[in-house]
Input
Amino acid sequence: MAFAIGADQDAAVKAAIAAIPEREWQKFRDGEIAETVHCMNKSEKAFRLIVLRRSQEQDLFENTQPYRYHAIASNRANEDAAATMAWYCQRGDASENRIKELKIGFGMEHMPCGTHSANAVFFAIGVLTYNLYFGFRGLALGPACQRAQVQTVRWRLFQTAGRIVRHGRQVFLKINAAMLDVFTAIRERCASVVREAGAVPETS
Output
């Protein structure tokens, strides 16, 4: 199985980083990247050690290093260091941030019951809700909300200021014209998704 994990910068790793020739450092985003081969203690298996370094400010009173380093160990083959580092950097959005949003945005930080079965049902409902929101955000909300957390979407959509008006024996909700356009666009996108899925025939 392919992996890329953060490497502890122990003495051996620091020595391997120091041995990388200066000519091998290449520009990568806001820093420089290079790689070498490293073998853990008491093991004959070697792996790729990919290192990202960024400049740091020098302290006038302390002898600080000119760079700060971040190293990852990986067995991914047939790609350069930049490609492996880019793949590794996806972990935040692919797992860590989603777990965080599931906990904070959908109330999954604490289970409400004292039994495993009940908590499992509660958690399953929370995950289903999150997945529905994720699909809704991607398909209906448009580019402005593609990376928005659920708290932001709630604030933009559900906490829209409005006023209830009664006129001619009817009740109307008055909202800002710009928000009306937003809601109309969301409704049209949702209807388009349903039609493309073949759930209901398109009507004239």
